[in-house]
Amino acid sequence: MYTFTYETPASLADAAQLAAAGGKPIAGGQSLLPSMRLRLANPEQLIDLAGIAELAGIRRAGNALAIGAMTRHMDVARSAEVRAAIPALADLAAHIGDRQVRARGTLGGSVANNDPAACYPSAVLGLGATIFTNRREIVADDFFLGMYSTALQEGELITAIHFPIPKRAAYLKFKQAASRFALVGVFVAQTDNGVRVAVTGAASSVFRHTALEAALTRNLTPESAAAVKIDASDLNTDIHASAIYRAQLISVQTQRAVARMVG
């Protein structure tokens, strides 16, 4: 690694001031630290957010769950509040990485990083969540811009994410065996305004599949999902899977998610 300074602010205001001056926030460090070890990232100053109590926690906020940005994956997975209100979100968190990753990784860190194969972005987009920062609120449909790219501005920090409670939802992930990232993951949520389907692992960034959404809003059955042709032209091909294989996985995982929801 290169030389850097390490700051441990105790308040959001102090962290925001350091970030505005060019410091690099670190949440769980599950992506940043490996990048630094490989010298793919070279921040001159790290801002550790772990000591800021106001950034962690889970609470009910009307018809939504408000989850602090520094809430660990394992805490989301174990939360009785999450398991009761959005069990699909708890299940998603329980299958991120391994036990060590779940003990250190955070919701806000994952969403801000926007890895193309991360699980949380599919829940944020699939549930139509709202991302709260130290400056503003950003709806999920406007947040994810591309590979490792989001609407966050320089120095802007995620403080919490509000997940609307759906009628029912499910997340199905086909894992890449070594990394446990999603080769393809599909989050399906039935809301008052119809069905939302968010796909991760298949393209350069998480995305909504509007054809599946339209079909499932009309008829929420696995057969409806199976009837939708999945276009592979914009999907990833790499050493793990071809675009055509990923297209098939989108269909199969959506069918399985719907079967879980209605079964």
From TrEMBL:
Signal peptide positions (record): none
Every FAD-binding PCMH-type domain range: 1-168
InterPro entries per UniProt: CO_DH_flav_C, CO_DH_flav_C_dom_sf, Diverse_Substr_Oxidored, FAD-bd_PCMH, FAD-bd_PCMH-like_sf, FAD-bd_PCMH_sub1, FAD-bd_PCMH_sub2, Mopterin_DH_FAD-bd
UniProt keyword Flavoprotein, yes or no: yes
Membrane-spanning intervals of the chain: none
UniProtKB keywords: FAD, Flavoprotein, Oxidoreductase
Protein name per UniProt: Xanthine dehydrogenase family protein subunit M
Native organism: Verminephrobacter aporrectodeae subsp. tuberculatae
